[in-house]
Amino acid sequence: MEHITGPRDSFNAYLPENPTTPVIVSVPHAGTSTRGFEDNLAPGLDVRGDADLWVDELYEGSPSGAFLTAKLSRFVCDLNRHPDDVSAHAVPEHPAPRNSHGRGFIWEITTEGTSAMAHPLSLSQWKRRQEIHAAYYGALATAIERARAKFGFAVLVDGHSMPSRGKAAHSDAGNQRAAIVPGDRQGQSCAPALSRLVEDHFLHHGYAVKFNDPYQGGFITTHHGTPATGVHAIQIEMRRDLYMNEATFEKQPSGFDRLRFGLEALLRTLDQFDPRS
C-alpha cells in the first residue's frame, strides 16, 4: 500500500496500488494541527469547535481501501473548498476573490461568529495553502483512477460531522438537526441507487436521516462526483452528539462504538454495490 504524507505534514493518504474495493473514504476536516501556520490565526482560537473530531477514527477498521485524512485544521485551509473561495479581506492580493461571507478556503470567522484570523494572508501565504489543497486532490484523483481502472467505477464517501443544532453563522441557526445528513448535491453527485442505499442503511440502524439539509455536499463532492464518468461521490454528515460531548469534545464510548459499527457495516455494503446495475 502506498502511504503519502501531504506537504508540510498536512494530511495522510493510504492509496492501495491494487485496490480490493471501489470505495474511497475522505475526511478533510479531521485535523486540528496548526503547526507552522499559527502566526495568521487569532490568539486563543480553539480549532476543535469547527473540526470533525474523531471522524477519522470512526471510519478506521473499515474494509481496506483508499483512506485520506487531513491533519491540518480547516482554519489553516479548508480542503473542502476551492482555493479561490477567499474574500478580498482574507487575501487582499488575490486577483479574483469569490467569497463575501468570511468562511471559504480561508476562514475569517468561526461558526460562532468570532474572529479566526490575526491578520490577512499575503499571496505567497495563500499559495502555500494552495499547494496543500492540490496535493490532497491529487491523492484523491489517484485513488479514484485506480478504483475506476479496476472496477469500472469508484465510490467516494466524504466523511464529516456537524453540531447537533445550527450555530449562529449557519443557515439553520438554533434548529435541531437530523442524526445523519447525506449530501448528493440534489442527486447530481452520485447514482440515485447509492443515495437510497445510504438512506436505507442508516434508517435500518435507527438513525433519523435528512438528505441535503442543511448540507448538500462541498467542493469534494461537487468536483469529484461525476456519475457519467463512473465516479459516485456522497457526503455524510453525522451529528456530533451521537458520539461525543459537544462541550468537552470527549468521545462518548457507547455512541461512538454504535456509530463506528454502523459505518463499518455501510462500507461493507458499499463494497458489494455496483451503481451500474
Structure description:
The chain is an alpha/beta fold and 277 residues long. The mean pLDDT is 95. The protein is built from five helices and seven strands, in the order βββαβαββααβα. α1 (55-59) links the parallel β3 (23-27) and β4. The longest helix has 29 residues, at 123-151. The two termini are 29 Å apart. Strands 1-2-4-3-5-7-6 form a seven-stranded mixed β-sheet. The relative contact order is 0.16. The chain is globular.
The secondary structure category is: alpha/beta
Q: pLDDT below 50 for ≥5 consecutive residues: which ranges? A: none
Which band does the percent of strand residues land in?
A: 5-15%
Main β sheet profile: 7 strands, mixed
| Rg (C-alpha, Å) | 18 Å
Question: Globular, elongated, flat, extended or rod-shaped: what is the shape?
Answer: globular
N-to-C series of helices and strands: EEEHEHEEHHEH
- How many angstroms separate the termini? 29 Å
Strand numbers in spatial order across the main sheet: 1-2-4-3-5-7-6
**Counted beta strands:** 7
Share of helix, binned: 25-40%
* Mean pLDDT level: 95
Number of helices: 5
Q: Features of this protein?
A:
277 residues; 5 helices; 7 strands
List the helices and strands and how they pair.
Elements: E1 2-5, E2 11-15, E3 23-27, H1 55-59, E4 66-70, H2 123-151, E5 154-162, E6 180-183, H3 192-204, H4 219-224, E7 231-239, H5 253-271
Parallel strand pairs: 3-4, 3-5, 5-7
Antiparallel strand pairs: 1-2, 2-4, 6-7
Give the structure's gist in a few sentences.
The chain is built from five helices and seven strands, in the order E-E-E-H-E-H-E-E-H-H-E-H. The chain is of the alpha/beta class.
